[in-house]
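Work Package 3 (structural annotation) set out to generate three-dimensional models for the target panel prioritized at the project kickoff. During this period the team completed the workflow that converts sequence records into discrete structure tokens, so that structures can be stored uniformly alongside our sequence database. As a representative example, we reproduce one entry of 174 residues exactly as it appears in the project archive.
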Amino acid sequence: IVLSGFFMMLVSGSLVRPVRRATDVMAKLAEGDLDHRVHSKRKDEIGVLGNAIDSFADSLSDFADILEQVGKGDLNQNMPKRSENDRLADSGQRMVYNIRELVGAAGQAAGEVNSGSLQVQASSEALSQGATQQAVSMQEISSTITEISTKINNNADGAREASKIAGQAKDAGD
């Protein structure tokens, strides 16, 4: 009985510890901490489970590295598919494609805004030049009107002088 109890403790310890380790690693992965691995050297089912968990963690870590590069602006990243049913890779690839399209559309919109801005600037310059030309023309017209007014006044003065001389000549002839 003592020997069988000792044997049971030995067997349960060799099963419980690796399963607990695998459970702890999965809990960390579920929290987003991708730096943990089981590192099992066992060749039995528990070793296979540990290796599968490590492979899963490696896949998640690779995906996180790609997303980090995308976050830094590298939109040339590709999500490698690990199987035909790899929804994570498909979704990631679709996300990168949509971001590329969005960035392209934003760049095109910025170009159109810049083009419109240049057109408004050119129109403003043309309007300003037209206003300057109108101001110069108005000055010329004002100067011409002043000159005409001076000539009219001179003519009126001359006409008054002529009328005065004519009146004096008439008086002298009477």
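Residues 47 and 78 are 31 Å apart (CA to CA).
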